[in-house]
Amino acid sequence: MNRVSHTRKLTISGILLALYIVIMMATQGFAFGQYQVRIATALYGLAALFPFSVPVFGLANLISNMIMGGLGPIDAIGGCIVGLLSAGAAAWGKRMGLGNWIVIPIITFIPGLVVPLWLAYLLQVPYIILASSLLVGQVICGIVSYILVNAIERVRGTVTNETAPNQHDAMVMSSHEGVIAAHDEFTSKEVRSYGKR
Questions:
Q1: Angle 89-146-69 from CA coordinates, rounded to 5°
Q2: Rounded-to-integer distance, Cα 122 and Cα 156, Å
């Protein structure tokens, strides 16, 4: 059941897009190249809570690589694909009922193993060296993402004005039980009054 309005989705998506790019600008000194810690990728984990934001992270990566990366269209398009894959995997993991811990391996291994596929060609550095250095940086991002997702999840109802699934289910169940109880009481009264005739 969709409990987030279209307007709120657009607002949250806009905030996440802007936040990704701002973090990239603030950390671009160590977010590009052979040795990098791209802390903005920690935001990918938020797609677990806001699955509608998956395309946003692909776009955010594309824009940041185009204006700051300096490695051309291959890096920009590749980054877009990695953003989509990482955010999509986080959203899928949450939907499958996996815990928030799942964002750690997703944010560590997808960017850490996929990005070096084209960086090895662009930078003329062996894949294994690039993957090793990127994986170290991405572990940090994965842990930050896990902490961030847990923190946002606690206040998600306030941010999106949505009812948490367990609260919603409890309200529906309570209403359903109330209707059944009222129906049973009405039926038993009818039976008793019929018996007195």
A1: 65
A2: 40
Whether residue 94 contacts residue 48, with contact meaning beta carbons closer than 8 Å, is answered with: yes
Q: Residue 180: pLDDT band by 50, 70, 90 thresholds?
A: low
Where do we find the tokens 């815990």? 99
Question: How far apart are alpha carbons 60 and 40 in whole angstroms?
Answer: 10
pLDDT given at position 58: 97
**H-helix or E-strand containing 23?**
helix 6-27
DSSP string computed for 26-44: HHTTTTSSSS---GGGGGG
Spell out the domain ranges in the chain: 6-162, 163-197
Q: What is the rounded CA–CA span in Å between residue 114 and residue 116?
A: 6
CATH fold group of domain 6-162: Arp2/3 complex 21 kDa subunit ARPC3 (1.10.1760)
- Residue 76 structure tokens: 């920009």
pTM of this structure: 0.75
CB 21 within 8 A of CB 39: no
Q: Is 171 exposed, middle or buried (0-12, 13-18, 19+ CB in 10 A)?
A: exposed
Could you give the CA distance from residue 113 to residue 109 in angstroms, rounded to a whole number? 6
Residue 66 pLDDT exceeds 80: yes
Percent of the chain with pLDDT over 70: 76
